[in-house]
Task: structure prediction
Amino acid sequence: MTSAEIVDDSALYFEDIPLNYTFRSTGRTITEADIVNFAGLSADYNPLHVDAHYAAGTPLGGRVAQGLLVLSIATGLTTRLPIYARIGTSVRGLRTVNCSWPKPTRIGDTLYGELVYTDASAAADSSLGEATLWRNARNQDGDIVLESEWKVLMLRRPDSAHQ
Result:
């Protein structure tokens, strides 16, 4: 896939998935407000996230962002990529998400999203295909702080749906 094809604004379908190409987002810095607001939204008030004194006495040595906050931000960063703007309109459903957080994310860390489509396979419904993608987040040092594998259902190109 060429850079011109990536920035084109026409819709992409299952057949157009650019396998094994890494798309990288711009960065976003995690703030205390992010952590506090996410705690209020999710009711995740674990003291590792909201109690500086408690968190300082743990092996983590200080407050860290909620894992699902990191997942949410990485998802948002990658859905803003030009490739996702074109391919996202063909997504018809989320099948699974598997996540791990190899390193903590702290206040002041800047996250960068990565999106890689790793597999494409037929679905039971001939109008759909199943795509496997990785949405990862790296911090400002290049360390992976989130790894997530997603399986999504996508529309097949209308002229190839019943082949």
